[in-house]
């Protein structure tokens, strides 16, 4: 291929031509390296953040299927769907003839995973940590499996930096605002995040502190307890056509809280804020800005 | 002899296309054929493109030596996924249908199902406890045993609840069926409350695991599950002749059964043990699959009458065929994903059951 290039024309425009040759040589080198261990071309991605990483690395053409938690980007929904990540069907996954299955930690059931492993299809389980280092590790692992280490390294560094910057408190900010995260508000019943959840990590990384640190996971909490906790901000999960902020404003006594008085009732998309993938720096920055907004 | 006794109230004699004698004689061969067809279909149909010719080629390759290349994937799909899944479907379906028929015979109540002796609620409580608490005991339980925790717990939970219920309902070596029914309701409410408490303690993932478990699935079928459930269902089959005769006698009432030479207490104990073991192991292997235990016995009672000597084996065959057929749908409708089988059995079972009831109502006005 290199022989086809006219050397005389190269001599006339040396800088551009040399750059082009260098690029060409580099890409040829890269393909030959990757070809040595045949990069996977039929990938099943299980877990919303894994799918986002595959798209962020520009490798979506190699995806053959995703799971129901992969809701971003919207094009991912057009791919065949293998069902909920914890209730996979072994033959369903095999029917797509994948040459790599990438799953976020917790995919199951174990029997289906065992069968997949016994069918000699590479199965990669990616740990899920809600931190800057955790997201960066996730990106590096996926990048390595796809044979795009360099791009993954860039993205991982960028995302880790973005998360670290989002968490630095703003100038003149002394106290961390107390934040209540409501997973759902149905008929006045509140499901609130305690410690140890993705929401808890997101609040901390955005410069806030959880208003309900006394229990683990998501628990139902009464409106009275929410008012008593007096959060400085309330974060609710927004779903497609459903905005729960009206329901929150209807909670008796809620107007007494610092969150409503300072107008810090924040609605954010679930996977965006809690997915811990490439979009996390943006989500955390957005949350951090809203937490600081109208701070008086 | 019993045909006119028990069925008369629920199912008045009818004038159908075929006489009951014909149906009775044809029942077992017909159901055997149906089950064979269902098994064959289940082995050659699935979400992947491994179909009849591939299965034949695979059998051929396996007989001549080890399959290689594309054959390896096909071998995993047929030998490690479809075959154990089909067999597990047969065993679970047969176990649930026979248990249901025995319960309806024992309680002399058309609404009876294995849940009445507490085995389902106990298994559900133990299952959710295993899902939620597994993490807390992760240091005690070696990781190699953790996948077996849920089925073992469900089986033990079902059996323990049944034993407790039996003890409560038994006074001076006599088990009162009414006491068992009422105590069963109380124990069901109690284990429901504990189940609710476990759900309260659960994380999102654990809650979703339990929700899927409670809708049932044969998706976890491997040879291990088939071998684990086999002895319990085999025990059930071995006892069918004895139980069939006994239940026929019991339809006349406990006193008459006694005079016919059957010890009602011994019969009750056996039926409860068999049902708890069969249902418990079925629930442990495939989660809570509803409806099979009610619909299958009723459909067959309408067709061939309440003679348990014929009814129980027929229930085993139809239950197996129904569950295997439902499982084919469950793994192909939304392929490559999978619909929980409890949804499929209810969607097929309920309309069929209703249509039978309505047809009979139109003719006989009940």
Describe the structure.
The complex is a heterodimer of chains A (296) and B (366). Chain A has 296 residues and is an alpha/beta fold. In chain A, 43% of the residues lie in helices and 16% in strands. Chain A folds into two domains: 43-167, Nitrogenase molybdenum iron protein domain (Rossmann fold), CATH 3.40.50.1980; 178-292, Rossmann fold. In chain A, strand 1 (43-46), helix 3 and strand 2 (63-66) form a beta-alpha-beta unit. In chain A, helix 6 (132-146) runs antiparallel to helix 7 and helix 7 packs parallel to helix 13. The longest helix of chain A is centred in the first third of the chain and has 23 residues, at 14-36. The termini of chain A are far apart. Chain B is mainly alpha-helical and 366 residues long. Chain B has one domain: ABC transporter involved in vitamin B12 uptake, BtuC, CATH 1.10.3470.10. Helix content of chain B is 76%, strand content 1%. Chain B has a two-stranded antiparallel ribbon. In chain B, helix 4 runs parallel beside helix 9, helix 4 packs antiparallel against helix 11 and helix 4 (70-107) packs across helix 12. The longest helix of chain B is centred in the N-terminal third of the chain and has 38 residues, at 70-107. The two termini of chain B are 24 Å apart. Residues 1-8 of chain B have low confidence and may be disordered. The chains are: A alpha/beta (296), B mainly alpha (366). The interface between A and B is medium-sized, with 34 and 33 residues.
Cα shape of chain A: elongated
CATH architecture designation of the largest domain in chain A: 3-Layer(aba) Sandwich
CATH class of the largest domain in chain A: Alpha Beta
Helix-strand string of chain B: HHHHHHEEHHHHHHHH
Mean of all residue-level pLDDT scores of chain A: 83
Shape of chain B: globular
Main sheet: strands, sense, barrel of chain A: 6 strands, mixed
Number of helices of chain A: 13
CATH topology of chain B: ABC transporter involved in vitamin B12 uptake, BtuC
CATH class label of chain B: Mainly Alpha
- Low-confidence region ranges of chain B: 1-8
**Binned strand content of chain A:** 15-25%
Q: Give the name of the CATH architecture of chain B.
A: Orthogonal Bundle
GO molecular function (chain B): transmembrane transporter activity
GO cellular component, one term (chain B): plasma membrane
Pfam families (chain B): FecCD (PF01032)
Family (chain B): Belongs to the binding-protein-dependent transport system permease family. FecCD subfamily.
């Amino acid at each position: 291929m290199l022989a086809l290039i006219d050397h005389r024309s190269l001599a006339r425009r040396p800088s551009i031509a040399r750059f082009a040759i260098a690029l060409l040589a580099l890409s040829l080198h890269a393909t030959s390296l990757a070809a040595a261990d045949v990069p996977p071309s039929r990938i099943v991605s299980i877990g919303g953040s894994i799918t986002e990483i595959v798209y962020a690395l520009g490798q979506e053409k190699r995806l053959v299927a995703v799971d129901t938690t992969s809701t971003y980007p919207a094009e991912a929904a057009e791919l065949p769907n293998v069902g909920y990540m914890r209730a996979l069907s072994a033959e369903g996954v095999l029917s797509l003839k994948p040459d790599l299955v990438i799953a976020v930690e917790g995919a199951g059931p174990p029997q289906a995973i065992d069968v997949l492993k016994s069918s000699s299809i590479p199965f990669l389980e990616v740990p899920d940590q809600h931190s800057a280092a955790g997201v960066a590790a996730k990106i590096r692992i996926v990048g390595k499996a796809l044979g795009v280490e360099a791009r993954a390294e860039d993205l991982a560094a960028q995302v880790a930096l973005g998360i670290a910057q989002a968490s630095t408190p703003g100038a003149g900010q002394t106290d961390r605002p107390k934040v209540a995260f409501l997973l759902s508000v149905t008929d006045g019943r509140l499901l609130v995040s305690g410690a140890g959840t993705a929401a808890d990590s997101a609040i901390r990384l955005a410069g806030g502190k959880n208003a309900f640190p006394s229990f683990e996971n998501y628990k139902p909490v009464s409106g009275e307890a929410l008012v008593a906790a007096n959060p400085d901000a309330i974060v609710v999960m927004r779903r497609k056509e459903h905005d729960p902020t009206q329901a929150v404003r209807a909670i008796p006594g809620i107007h007494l809280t610092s969150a409503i008085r300072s107008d810090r009732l924040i609605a954010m998309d679930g996977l965006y804020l809690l997915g811990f993938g490439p979009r996390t720096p943006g989500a955390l920055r957005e949350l951090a800005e809203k937490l600081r907004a109208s701070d008086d | 002899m019993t045909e006119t006794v028990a069925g008369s109230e629920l199912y008045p004699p009818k004038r159908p296309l075929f006489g009951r004698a014909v149906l009775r004689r044809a029942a077992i061969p017909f159901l055997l054929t149906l089950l064979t067809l269902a098994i064959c279909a289940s082995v050659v149909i699935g979400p992947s493109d491994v179909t009849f010719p591939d299965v034949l080629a695979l059998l051929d390759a396996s007989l001549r030596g080890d399959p290689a290349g594309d054959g390896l994937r096909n071998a995993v799909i047929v030998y490690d996924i479809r075959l154990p899944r089909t067999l597990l479907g047969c065993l679970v379906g047969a176990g649930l249908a026979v248990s249901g028929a025995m319960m309806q015979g024992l309680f002399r109540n058309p609404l009876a199902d294995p849940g009445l002796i507490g085995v389902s609620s106990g298994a559900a409580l133990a299952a959710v406890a295993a899902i939620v608490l597994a993490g807390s005991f992760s240091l005690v339980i070696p990781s190699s045993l953790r996948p077996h925790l849920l089925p073992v717990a469900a089986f033990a939970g079902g059996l323990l609840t049944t034993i407790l219920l039996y003890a409560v309902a038994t006074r001076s070596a006599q088990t009162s069926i009414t006491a068992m029914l009422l105590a069963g309701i109380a124990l069901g409410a109690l284990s429901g409350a504990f189940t609710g408490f476990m759900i309260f303690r659960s994380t999102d993932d654990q809650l979703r695991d339990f929700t899927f478990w409670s809708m049932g699935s044969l998706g976890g079928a491997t040879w291990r599950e088939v071998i684990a459930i086999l002895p319990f269902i085999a025990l059930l089959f071995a006892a069918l002749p004895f139980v069939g005769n006994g239940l026929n006698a019991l339809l006349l009432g406990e006193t008459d059964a006694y005079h016919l030479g059957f010890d009602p207490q011994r019969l009750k104990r056996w039926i409860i043990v068999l049902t708890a073991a069969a249902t418990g192991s079925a629930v442990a292997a495939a989660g809570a699959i509803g409806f099979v235990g009610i619909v299958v016995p009723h459909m067959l009672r309408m067709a061939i009458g309440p003679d348990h000597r014929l009814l129980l084996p027929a229930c085993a065959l139809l239950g197996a065929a129904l569950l295997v057929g439902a499982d084919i749908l469950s793994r192909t409708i939304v392929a490559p994903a999978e619909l929980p089988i409890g949804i499929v059995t209810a969607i097929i079972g309920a309309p069929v059951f209703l249509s039978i009831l309505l047809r009979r109502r139109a003719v006989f006005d009940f």
